[in-house]
Design goal:
Elements lengths: L3 E4 L3 E6 L5 E8 L5 E3 L16 E4 L5 E3 L2 E4 L2 E4 L8 E3 L9 E6 L2 E7 L12 E10 L2 E10 L5 E3 L2 E7 L10 E4 L3 E2 L2 E2 L2 E2 L7 H8 L1 E2 L6 E6 L4 E6 L4 E7 L5 E6 L10 E7 L5 H6 L8 E3 L4 E12 L1
Antiparallel strand pairs: 1-2, 2-3, 3-4, 5-15, 6-9, 7-8, 10-11, 11-12, 12-13, 13-27, 14-26, 15-25, 16-20, 16-22, 17-21, 18-19, 21-24, 22-23, 23-27, 24-25
Length: 308
């Protein structure tokens, strides 16, 4: 199955069911009725989820160090899949999904992991996602259902890669993301609860992203709203997220030759890095959900693009 195109008058998206039902392209109508990428465009022959424009996170988000965790007193393991010896980004993002339904502007997909021989999660689960383009808005809804007979730790999220400039190369992209503080990290894993600092305050007020330097950080207390602006192009993108997405990860990588790579990530996620182990240690507000058998964890992320 090839990539599926979803279109409205002002937005075009392409989704690849073979690559975790990831968004591979999201473009907006710009000057001269030309189409410009809002997200980092996946290569035509992309074969890895990490090359896509936006991939899905479930049944956990972010890192589990060494793939080891304890939940309800039982030690568990998942396979390591990252060079830093972490299990990262869940189990759904590299797998083929099944198309459930589609229209010219929407599509829904499912991954039923109950029968997967190589499932990288101790509990059987099922995930569904729905995408819809409507005028200037991309609507996304992700669901995770516990198909086991015991509680399982659960987390979901979206991992979009935004471009730093649109049609005007003078864009100095800015981000506003209200939050309650940034987690002190060691090896990208929290070592203390989130606390306000200069970076978290700047993000809460709104700031040019390059003013914050290189980032790979997670912030607590997200209120479900955020804004990205491309001032020279005159475009604003507004986030509206379900309350379950109480954390936000910002990844703003530097370039080897100086400056920054041409993309950055602003990720709505339900849980902090290593949330399962932190929950077992008695941390509060990790975002982890102990999901009962048959229950579903669901969250929506709407991205509205408009002139400034």
């Amino acid at each position: 199955m090839h990539r599926l195109a979803l279109e409205s008058d002002s937005l075009r998206a392409q989704v690849d069911p073979r690559l975790g039902a990831a968004i591979c392209d999201l473009t907006i109508r710009g000057p001269g009725n030309q189409w410009f990428p809002l997200l980092r465009r996946a290569p035509a022959e992309a074969s890895c989820f990490n090359d896509t424009a936006c991939y899905l996170l479930a049944p956990w988000c972010n890192r589990i160090p060494a793939g080891a965790f304890t939940f309800h007193g039982i030690a568990r393991n998942v396979n390591v899949n990252w060079p830093d010896n972490s299990s990262i980004h869940g189990d759904v993002c590299g797998r083929p999904w099944t198309l459930l339904d589609r229209s010219p502007a929407s599509a829904a997909f499912e991954l039923d992991a109950r029968s997967l021989a190589d499932r990288n999660w101790p509990w059987p689960y099922r995930a569904r996602v729905r995408y819809e383009t409507a005028e200037r808005t991309l609507r996304c809804r992700l669901e995770l259902t516990n198909e086991s007979n015991s509680r399982m730790p659960a987390g979901i999220g979206f991992h979009p890669y935004f471009v730093r400039s649109l049609w005007d190369t003078n864009d100095r992209v800015a981000v506003l993301a209200r939050n309650a503080g940034k987690y002190p990290l060691q090896n990208l894993v929290p070592i203390e609860p989130a606390a306000e600092d200069a970076v978290s305050r700047a993000l809460a007020a709104g700031t040019p992203l390059d003013a914050l330097g290189e980032l790979d950080d997670v912030f607590a207390g997200a209120d479900g709203r955020a804004e990205i602006t491309w001032p020279a192009s005159g475009i604003r993108a507004r986030f509206e997220c379900s309350p379950i997405f109480g954390h936000v990860v910002i990844y703003s990588p530097s370039a080897p030759a100086g400056g920054f790579l041409p993309y950055f990530c602003l990720e709505p996620v339900s849980m902090v890095n290593n949330a399962i182990n932190l929950y077992a240690q008695g941390w509060h507000e990790t975002g982890l959900v102990p999901l009962a058998p048959g229950d579903t964890l669901a969250g929506a992320w709407n991205l509205h693009v408009e002139p400034m």
